[in-house]
Amino acid sequence: MNRREFLKISSMGAMTLFLSGCGLFGSDQKVNSAPEKGSVSGGKSMKIVVINSSPHSDSESTSKYLAARFVDGARSAGHEIFVFDAAKEDIHPCQGCDKCGMDGPCIFKDAIENTLMPKMLEADLIVLVTPLYYFGMSAQLKIIVDRFYSRTGKLHGKKSIMMSTAYNSADWTMEALMNHYNTLVRYMEWTDVGQVWATGCGARSLVERSEFADVAYKIGTNL
Ligand SMILES: Cc1cc2nc3c(=O)[nH]c(=O)nc-3n(C[C@H](O)[C@H](O)[C@H](O)COP(=O)(O)O)c2cc1C
Among 21, 42, 71, 93, fewest CB within 10 Å belongs to which? Predict the structure, then answer.
């Protein structure tokens, strides 16, 4: 699907997009809203791992902008943050060799095994950040998610947040990725504590002036 196709699909939403600055989501309280202050951390400093997965530069990426706002908020609230940028790292997809027996280590000694996984294992909260690619997560993020296989049990019990940006602003834009995320949370025995689904945010200027950026910041401050 090319950019023109996205435009066609979202033509109905385009007017809303211009009127609202950025595609607004429905009134669901669970998504695109911040938790009660202190309700996630209980007022304690948490170890947070943020996984970015856009190949766009830091200054151009819409999803990394959301992540940066979240990080600003969470740091201001005293949390310890580690950011992993999947698109900049040397990472390999799971080979399904099962040498790990789902209990590590992985045969690959790459940035996932050596850098990210140790941080994930000690983290309280994991934040998955992706541009919407063909109504799912980016390949860069999927590589990492598949590599959870080597430590599935050890990663149980974490808290999680999901953030995604998309060009389209139709109300079903994020549906498939939402379902995937919710299923992943269930399987990994995680507790979801926040979701930002930034539809109608296909350009940096749109996400910067959107309500989604403020929600991302507030989720960080309110943890
Ligand atoms: C390969 C590719 C696939 C995409 N698929 C979708 C899609 O399915 N739906 C959509 O609304 N936008 C889609 N987009 C647009 C991006 O989600 C959008 O531009 C997003 O803001 C990019 O985020 P980033 O700057 O953080 O990478 C796609 C873009 C690319 C390059």
Answer: 42
